[in-house]
Amino acid sequence: MSDTFDRARYPHWVTIPTRWSDNDQFGHVNNAVHYSVMDTAINDWLKAHGFDVAAGGDTINLIPETGCRYLAEISYPDAFEVGLRALSVGRSSVRWECALARSGDGELVALATSAHVFVDATSRRPTAVPQVLRPALEALLGEAAAPAEPPIS
């Protein structure tokens, strides 16, 4: 694990199990699964804080940007421990960072980032971050001034 990885920088943690089908022919979880894990952690958090895009409504969130830095392998049956924080909260957007650690030993396996823009469901034009979310999002900022850039080894 990188010396620069500090679990305390991520205010919210959740465990997401891997599935047998997540492993690819190389015997580790396929890279695309990391994005699904990040998406699940973020959307579960949003739903728990009053924003459920699946419930319908006037505002939805779109993802204009994602990124993932892979640092180590993870394989089924291990689980992901996912740390979530907000890097910034703007008028109509939030930038997320997820630390994906291997549950078995706590090693950081990936750092994933994404951005959500809240938009009007009909016009698809940016709209303000829902008021129900803003305090919870700001609480996720913590010490999130800069991404936790571990060195590539």
UniProtKB/TrEMBL annotation:
Top-level taxon: Bacteria
Designated name of the protein: Acyl-CoA thioesterase
Keyword Hydrolase: yes
Swiss-Prot/TrEMBL keywords: Hydrolase
Keyword Membrane: no
Sequence similarity: Belongs to the 4-hydroxybenzoyl-CoA thioesterase family.
CDD domains for the chain: 4HBT (cd00586)
Source species of the chain: Janibacter terrae
Signal peptide positions (record): none
